[in-house]
Amino acid sequence: MRLLSGLNGPRGPRRPSGPLGLLALAVCAALLVPVSAAGAGQRARAADPTAYDRIVPAPAHTAPGGPGYRLDARTVIRTTAGSAAARGVGELLARALRPATGLALRVSGTDAGGSAADGIRLRLDARAADQGEEGYRLRADGTGVVITAYRPAGLFRGAQTLRQLVPVTGRPVVAGGTVADAPRFPYRGAMIDIARHFFTVEQVKRYLDRLALYKVNVLHLHLTDDQGWRLAVDSWPRLAEHGGGTEVGGGPGGYWTKAQYRDLVRYAGERYVEVVPEIDMPGHVNAALASYAELNCDGVAPARYTGTKVGFSSLCVAKERTYEFVADVLREVAELTPGRYLHIGGDEAYATPHADYATFMGRAQQAVVAQGKTVLAWHQLAGAGPVSGTALQYWGLDRTPAAEKAKVAGAVRAGAKVVLSPADRAYLDMKYDAATRPGLSWAGYVPVRRAYEWDPGAYLAGVEEAAVLGVEAALWTETVATTADADLMAFPRALGIAELGWSPASALSWDAYRLRLAAQGPRLTALGVGYYRAPEVPWA
Ligand code: TNX
User: Fold this and answer.
1) Mutate which of 310, 397, 400 for ligand 1 pocket (most atoms within 8 A of beta carbon)
2) Topology, domain 187-526
3) Is residue 348 among the annotated active site residues?
4) For 24-33, 226-235, 262-271, which range has the lowest pLDDT when averaged over its residues?
5) Which residues form ligand 1's pocket by a CB distance below 6 Å?
6) Which helix or strand (DSSP H or E) is residue 278 part of?
7) Residue 135 has pLDDT above 50, yes or no
8) Residues 215-224: pLDDT tens digits?
9) How far apart are CA 274 and CA 325, in angstroms?
10) Is the pLDDT of residue 212 over 80?
């Protein structure tokens, strides 16, 4: 049973269950023959057998063993004939493998031809529906590597696993073994606030790239707030031109043109990441109020704001012009966004009386539905009539009063779904400890272990796992002004949130995770990420 050891957490063998489990047993059985035939010498020459224990997020099933596959200049990445998507995944894989291997691997748009021993195959299998949208199987042995998936997204996720099976330095050998994998939750998000401090599309692409290695599949963009409006809107041009012209601390700010936003959406799509744009309303709107006097109840535009207070601004709920604004903005954003969701904020609307808040959020939700999109909003919407099918993003704390959590559970009973971003777990802008230089601490310090050690399927009383779409790590940027700041706060905690979203509950173990995370250190360094060397992780 040595072969099955990769399936085990520290608590001993896990019994594979369901179709994926059977699949895993089948691939293991197929492997038993070559491995038991291999002599001790051959095993010693095989690639590091623990590479499968170092994958983040932990795959559903792994079975390390057998000789590995050595990449060399003749290696070809062969992708299913007729699938531009599979070929695209192949091209991205070739690019990703280049720094570690020094090889410029050739990509072929057919997986026929070639000898059995010449490379990496990315195969779409129309019969593998049991793998779902993102599942995949991977098998590496002395003759090559095969990744099979039902959908291109599964090939992409499998390719991220393959990247992690190639050592960061040294001989480019893919460790021998098999993986049968699929995510626990469909929504594994990362939010970045480009309103408090402006970040360019290039900076956000870089962030997205690093997160995609860990199978994150949603990029939530917090595009507007009191301190800045960051996306061009043709029907209300001053939003970006005036409202985008500053940021926290009084810097120059900035905004994205529609072409730049589209470019990011395309880039994300190539990585099977869905972009969720957020227009935060009816609070967090000072940049909009400063840009258009007519949006203010008193008809007077306030000055732009560069501080860090929250909860002081509100759209004018009584004015019909406000709803024309909402409809125009959401229409233009929807036109740019192929994803399912429009996030309309709804948090910290302390300057909007509750009845007004409910009125406003009702109409804003209708404006989203009118665009054929699904509403996503911060969980305060739970108490103000979420429309059926809405997703609520929970950002409370462990210690949030039960009555507030119960409102979320009540909305779930009425048909809402939940994305979990508890601030004292998943807020990447919280300091690790008192010594962290950027960062806030209103939700407490969030060390790496605390960010990891919770179960999204059992986090909120009265919210069954089936109602949980997934998790999201949120990077607010009042104190985060540069790529170096963002790296330090997001890494490594974002990896833990990514694992909570992907890996089966039975694989979640801090003791095992800290070792797997430690092995990501050199990988992050190779990618140029200045991560936080958390003391509770035995970094290599
Ligand atoms: C709360 S969480 C906010 C943001 C702040 C953040 C800082 C939420 C929905 N609103 O406006 O940026 O805390 O940690």
Assistant:
1) 310
2) TIM Barrel (3.20.20)
3) yes
4) 24-33
5) 310, 347-348, 378, 395, 427, 429, 440, 476, 478
6) strand 274-281
7) yes
8) 999 999 999 9
9) 25
10) yes
